[in-house]
Amino acid sequence: ANLSLENAPGTGNASGFQHAELTVSLASALERGGKREARVEVASRRLDATAVLQDAKRIDLLAEVARRYLDAVIAGAQARLAAADFAQRERALEAASRRVQAGGAPQSVRLAAVAAKQRAESDLRRAERAQVVAKRRLSLLWGETRGVSFDVTASDLVRLPVVVAYEDLKQRLAKNPDLAVFAHEARIREARLRLAETARSRDVAWQLGVRRLQDGADWALVGNVSMPLGSMQRAEPAIRAAAAELDALSMEREATRLGLEAALAEAYGRIETAVAEAEQFDRALLPALREAESSAEQAYRRGALTYLEWAQLQSDTIATEYQRLAASVEAHRALIELQRLTGEPMLRAVDTAKEQRP
């Protein structure tokens, strides 16, 4: 809507409003080439892309929850190992005290056992505090700030993950939200290209109204039609820029895909190595050390073994337990990464440790 007043106020014969001309008109433009539809399509594609971004954020959040949950499970497993070590050192101290009282060992043996028990107790207290902290970090994800009122089970670490074939994982990588974002971004850039191409078509602008002529108080219709020249030439730079952005997106997507495949290969290799190491511990090393430690305890109580030999076996056993735990932790961290990369929980776990301690 336009309102214009001409020839007033002026000077001489045009002074005042005697020769004023008041015009009231309506104006618009007839958009040609599908410009409106192209704008609507660009906006629609942008709205669709927000859903993909939400999915990406959701998967990242789920991965963070899994990591913090795993940290809580690890802290619990370490606390149980520390408690088992403390119980071993208590038994060693009790046996050493009996030997000293019977005159079969010097006082230094009992003092060494006391020091070992105190170190184990310190490790246990530290592990218990770490468990509380890990559970608190996990509970913060759902807004719990007052306290920790839930438990986690260490059996999740005993079970070693088993994944599908690597080639199958590569196919499932197409569901990664980072790649899905590229698909939606491609649609947005295609819509922008079509919008830029519509600028080649000339829009027709029109205006129609009435004008009041003060001289004689007459009314008259006014109107005009205009069309810009050189639209095709002016549109070409924007079209070339939009086309270049669309072509560059394919290279960006390919670079991202290769990066994701590299991350997938690394995580897959980590999980294979960690599972093989943990299975080796479960199959041979840990059973042998546990049996040796049990035999050493019996031999020490009969006087057939020194305290240092028994203590060394205790240390070797608990250290190997921690190594087995570290291997399982590495496998589960890699499992979380695989699930984040593929965007689906297609992995399963089997209990290869047969209820052994983590």
Uncertain segments are: 348-358
For the sheet with most strands, the description reads: 4 strands, antiparallel
Total helix count? 7
Indicate the structural class: alpha+beta
Count of extended strands:
6
Write the layout of secondary structure elements.
Layout: E1 2-6, E2 21-30, H1 35-101, H2 107-139, H3 155-158, E3 160-162, H4 166-172, H5 177-198, E4 204-213, E5 218-226, H6 231-301, H7 307-342, E6 348-350
Antiparallel strand pairs: 1-2, 2-4, 3-6, 4-5
Helix pairs in contact: 1-2, 1-5, 1-7, 5-6, 6-7
Give a verbal description of the structure.
It is a single chain. The chain has 358 residues and is of the alpha+beta class. Helices cover 67% and strands 11% of the residues. It contains 7 helices and 6 strands; from the N terminus they run ββαααβααββααβ. Strand 4 (204-213) and strand 5 form a beta hairpin. The radius of gyration is 39 Å and the shape is elongated. The protein starts with a strand and ends in an 8-residue tail after the last strand. Mean pLDDT is 84; it is low at 348-358.
